[in-house]
């Protein structure tokens, strides 16, 4: 999980790449949960991923970049 100051220092391309990676990771976490995999173990990861996605989207919106 990255802080806002670190995210603000990243380039737009880096942010978009990180956003893509996080969305894939969130999908995999949800898939594992739905198929009966690590359901009870790492539930905190989904929350952290969602929050980092929100932070990245906030920085992109501040810069006027919509996706």
UniProtKB/TrEMBL annotation:
According to its UniProt entry, this protein's organism is Candidatus Methanodesulfokora washburnensis
Alphabetical list of InterPro entries matching this protein: Ribosomal_protein_uL29, Ribosomal_uL29, Ribosomal_uL29_sf
List UniProt keywords, sorted A-Z.
Ribonucleoprotein, Ribosomal protein
Gene Ontology molecular function, alphabetical: structural constituent of ribosome
Provide the protein name: Large ribosomal subunit protein uL29
Which cellular components does GO assign to this protein? cytosolic large ribosomal subunit
Q: Which SUPFAM superfamilies match?
A: Ribosomal protein L29 (L29p)
Asked if the record carries the keyword Iron-sulfur, the reply is no
GO biological process terms on file: translation
Upper lineage is: Archaea, Thermoproteota, Candidatus Korarchaeia, Candidatus Korarchaeia incertae sedis, Candidatus Methanodesulfokora
Q: Which family does it belong to?
A: Belongs to the universal ribosomal protein uL29 family.
Signal peptide (from-to): none
